[in-house]
Structures are given as structure tokens and as C-alpha cells.
Design brief:
By secondary structure, the chain is an all-beta fold. It has strands at residues 2-6, 9-11, 17-24, 33-38, 45-50, 57-59, 67-72, 77-82, 91-97, 111-115. Helix content is 0%, strand content 47%. The strands form 2 sheets. Strands 2-10-9-4-5-6 form a 6-stranded mixed sheet, with no helix packed on it.
Length: 117
């Protein structure tokens, strides 16, 4: 299993970023995908999930209405569009397949998002 997150960066409050997660080593189209984020000293937080076919999405209250998940199963990639970013969105963002045993203890390198004026 390999998960490569990208697209992070530094933006001002109210700005947007689009994160990508390129997956390999498993049948991507058979697994729901989740995004998490983590800040220093805090536990990793689930923020969003998308079904294996991409038809169903769920979001944590903290990002609902601002973040949008999508996926391209032909490219083995899941995307997280983040709009109206707030300073409290500053974190390292990770993706992970849902209930893939082979990925149980695996996390990618993540991508840093910093929201600051």
C-alpha cells in the first residue's frame, strides 16, 4: 500500500486549496477513502469520507459546507477541495482507505496546510 498526499501549502484565511491523494498497492475502486488531519499535540481527527463509487460523502461538522470530496477511480486518486479556509484548519492532512487490513498501521507522509494572515 502506498498513499501520497499532495497539494498543501500556505494560504490566507478565506482561501482555497485542493489536496490530492494518489493511492497504489490495493484495489482503489473497492474501498471507501477517508481524510484525516492532525495538529501537534492532538490526536488525528477524521474530517471526511467518500464511498468507493464516489456517490456518498460524509463530513465532520468542522468542515461541512466548506470542504468537498471527490475521487477518480481511473486515476486511483481522491481529492479534497477546501474552501473558506480558517486558521483552525492548519494541520497535516492524510488520506486512508477505510477498513483495508493492509493499511491498518500505515499512514502516508501527509501534506501540510497552513492558514494564516
Amino acid at each position: 500500500v502506498q498513499l501520497v498526499e499532495s497539494g498543501g501549502g500556505s494560504v490566507q484565511p478565506g482561501g482555497s486549496l485542493r489536496l490530492s491523494c494518489a493511492a497504489s498497492g490495493f484495489t482503489f475502486s473497492s474501498y471507501a477513502m477517508n481524510w484525516y488531519r492532525q495538529t501537534p499535540g492532538k490526536e488525528r481527527e477524521w474530517i471526511a469520507g467518500i464511498s468507493f463509487g464516489g456517490h456518498t460523502t460524509n463530513y465532520a461538522d468542522s468542515v461541512k459546507g466548506r470542504f468537498t470530496l471527490s475521487r477518480d477511480n481511473t486515476k486511483n486518486t481522491v481529492y479534497l477541495q477546501m474552501n473558506s479556509l480558517k486558521p483552525e484548519d492548519t494541520a497535516v492532512y492524510y488520506c486512508k482507505p477505510y477498513r483495508l487490513v493492509a493499511a491498518r498501521d500505515y499512514w502516508g507522509q501527509g501534506t501540510q496546510v497552513t492558514v494564516s494572515s
